[in-house]
Amino acid sequence: MRLQVVYFKGPILPGAHSIERFLVEEELRWILDQEKRSRKKCAARLLDYEKRTLVPINYVILEVIFSQLFHLPDAPVRPIFYGSLLIELCKTKSMPQVIAQAAELFYQRIDTMQVACIDRLIDWFSYHMSNFEYRWSWSDWCDCVELDRLAPRHMFVREVVDRCMRFSYHQKLTEILPPEFGKMIPEKPVICYDLNDGILILQLAENFIFFLNFQ
């Protein structure tokens, strides 16, 4: 029996137990499985799905993708596939807004998510941001700053910032993120070149000469 995951509620989608919705989601999962080796082909087939007029297709596509990404204990394919697929889907005009709605819903409901799913959400969102110049309404998430460090929202945003730092660099993020996020931004890394130490260079040279003479 397959567990049905519902992220979007309201009149925009058929009911969770609607047979039409169930059949559409099953066929979309089949497309994901068939085209898991090519994000471009997969995105094209999802968007050109022949029964797309039966449901708000963008919302259903995202529900299916995220249900696969958050599948426990393991996603059906490597999580990076779903991240690259979502980037490909963002080439359409309507999909970015739907993905933004999904990200906001995940943030609001993160207290109810499994830790493994939160980790995958962090990896996906930071990767997604790195492909779109980190453009996001960060100020909408300032409410997490004063929460306990172990609070799910605080931990999520802190880890996202840390991942984004790895994708980018310190100055860029400090310019993009609101001032309230200052506590969450890691300290600016300091690069130390050992070879700049003249004494160390001398020691290395002496050791090298010693080994040459020894041979």
From TrEMBL:
Protein location: Nucleus
Family of the protein in this entry: Belongs to the NCBP1 family.
Single Gene Ontology MF annotation: RNA cap binding
GO BP, sorted A to Z: 7-methylguanosine mRNA capping; mRNA export from nucleus; nuclear-transcribed mRNA catabolic process, nonsense-mediated decay; regulatory ncRNA-mediated gene silencing; RNA splicing
Organism field: Gongylonema pulchrum
Chain segments annotated as transmembrane: none
Keywords, alphabetical: mRNA capping, mRNA processing, mRNA splicing, Nucleus, RNA-mediated gene silencing
Positions of the MIF4G-like type domain: 55-178
InterPro entries assigned: ARM-type_fold, CBP80, MIF4G-like_typ-1
A Gene Ontology term for the protein's cellular component: nuclear cap binding complex
Listed name of the protein: MIF4G_like domain-containing protein
